[in-house]
Predict the structure.
Amino acid sequence: MSKIQIDKAYISKIEEAIENMDLDFLRTTLNNLHPADIAELLDEVAMDDAKHLYHLLEDNELAAEVMLELEDDVREKFLKALSSKEIAEQVIENLDSDDAADILSELSEEKMAEVMSHIEDAELAYDIAQLMAYGEDTAGALMATELVQVNVAWTVTRAVREMRKQGEELDDIYTVYVVDDEEKLLGSLSLKRLFFSTASMRSTISELYDAKDLTSVTPDTDAEEVVSIMKKYDLVVLAVVDDSGHLLGRITIDDVVDYMQEEAERDYNMASGISEKVESDDSLWRLTRARLPWLLIGLMGGVLVSQVIAMYEEQLSLDPKLAFFIPLIAAMGGNVGVQSSAIVVQGLANNTVDVRNIFQRLIKEMGVALLNGLVCSLILLAFNLITHTSPALSYTVSISLFCVIVNAGVLGTFIPLTLNRFKVDPALATGPFITTMNDLLGLFIYFYIGQLMYGL
Amino acid sequence: MSKIQIDKAYISKIEEAIENMDLDFLRTTLNNLHPADIAELLDEVAMDDAKHLYHLLEDNELAAEVMLELEDDVREKFLKALSSKEIAEQVIENLDSDDAADILSELSEEKMAEVMSHIEDAELAYDIAQLMAYGEDTAGALMATELVQVNVAWTVTRAVREMRKQGEELDDIYTVYVVDDEEKLLGSLSLKRLFFSTASMRSTISELYDAKDLTSVTPDTDAEEVVSIMKKYDLVVLAVVDDSGHLLGRITIDDVVDYMQEEAERDYNMASGISEKVESDDSLWRLTRARLPWLLIGLMGGVLVSQVIAMYEEQLSLDPKLAFFIPLIAAMGGNVGVQSSAIVVQGLANNTVDVRNIFQRLIKEMGVALLNGLVCSLILLAFNLITHTSPALSYTVSISLFCVIVNAGVLGTFIPLTLNRFKVDPALATGPFITTMNDLLGLFIYFYIGQLMYGL
């Protein structure tokens, strides 16, 4: 499989060949490409052309891999065009269990059941059903059941023979798992160790493997913990065992990389007020739909804020200059709130925040906020006094700026920690949500202090 | 090396043993831990205890690995306590070339040169110097020179013998590179393939390896492209060659995972107004320093905005109600701006944005903004008219909201694309920067339209 750059020139060459019905050229070209490249090509050409090209794939396994690599919306259309029987036989049966489960979970309940009933390989059907039962964002959802395992009592000769059989369907083998007669995981053996071992072919696996060099998780382990374990120990593969230690499957780094990227994008989107996975070349409608909900929340917040200010209309008529600093107060509250919650959200994602010490963290955040608040409000006070803003307004702005910064810092820390404690995604606290709330509270504080300062 | 959970109980047990000078226990425990766990332990205990524990490590290679895994600030202190000769002999010479280069680049120019002069392994010194010359965020900066390569003309017997020699210093081998007599890369061979091959030991490598199954990059390839290639083809390792195809080194997935995470954090921090890498358990001072610069930018923006509003003081005295909607206009401009720039920044990071089509992208963004703007301003108009806000104010708010949303959408797309074109990190455009600019422009628009509406 050659890997090539799918650029505009390449795509036009293919489109030309489709137009000229140059099937020989297309068939030869396509069937020699890497599935990821074929998928990229199909993503780019018109849907009819894509379906046409897909039917030229000669190898079922290649076609299944291509299906897996397609963009979600393109795959959806492809799957709709196939019968349940075709999906089972052409796609599902040619994929690893974890990828098969991923594709099945994209189908409707009804179609999923139909496809499952058409899977002929009973063991695969069982594995897939098991995998689909694991909760989202758990080790179980990331793992595949295909792996290479040897019994600790086997000789090297027998182990190699069995490995050859088991490894046939695997793209590559990174680790060989060593189990006892009850299939309990005892340890692992790298191919390097087995290959370079100077032990005789008649020695047993028990003399070769390293029982201590083993890390495993259970299927209900949080996906984020899986990421942090694999990152910490630089693992390429991680074993999954049940509560009694029986080997269930293994998680490979490529799936973890995909998970990491999705998580990072989700957090980033939340912080930016985008509610679903979008790419800048998505349709106008999809882009709008992903953004409008947050804007409506912001709009509602803005209306609420207008009601808060309305309560102080009288004060505003007395000194319209009070209005000058409304955006400053609102913006600073928002900025501090986003900073604080972003630090907590990242800390929770990296497991560096100790959730038991919420109180301690709030104290520290308050320290940071006090420092930042002091610096900002003193600078602003100096500026205002120098530019002959009235003392009443100058003090009102600086005192409330200080209060707003401290308040936003504490709320920005407290809210994501609280959401997390109640098992809600803490990233919800970032973005438009926290900005709007800080606008509201900030302007309350501002006008309240103004009232005190002007002696109303 | 056992892997364990470094929790509070474990840390206290170690601290107790330090207090009781239970050296035997400490030595046995430490030297049996995984370096990543030892580093985590040293990060957690007091600095004096950490240095004490570090000296109990018996194996130089283990000690070097621990040094590598320490947190940046802890490692800085450790390195300061060691002489240049000690760093060279104990740390650098026991690490892979890429890790050695990373640690060296953390030293001052002067100390770096000293350490380099103490490296006895001339080949390693040469490799490190080469690696350090590659630009940041390139394939060269991510690669290591340690790898296993075999000549295409060798017999399997000879290849295995040579691989054993070369592989001794490597933790694990994923791929064996096949080169010609001039060390030009021809292809690769997985250990699985070699291991399971039924070819005789006297057949040559040329009969076994796959020339087509090869992807490589040059050292000046952008790190983001490295990430996207490894993700696309699910690679665990990627070869680096020079312009004439000579094999220089290889990039492993663990380094790419670290790079991805750092990049995602940097973008997220930019969007949240945090200027350097911080963790929530960093010192008060460090946390403040990372956040204050952005707050000062926000403060300056706020002062500028106050000057804009001041220009319209007369209008505000005529209808103080105009002030009610200042935060709404400012917030909506900010929200739309952040959304638009976030989509562009992510698209650039994932290579899904075609930078040649800036104009096309702006047209599309304008479409999204027109839709969102229309929905939001009509809803607001309805609300205001129903709640008996004066028609002049109602129309002022809705018309300017519409203009602000369109304007913010276009700017939010245009600015990161322009920054990127001038090789500035487009993520700079997100966060407080874009919010502040949209506040300014938004309120200009608001009061200008107000002036027209009120017929001033």
Residues 284-453 of chain B form a domain with the Tetracycline Repressor; domain 2 fold (CATH 1.10.357.20).
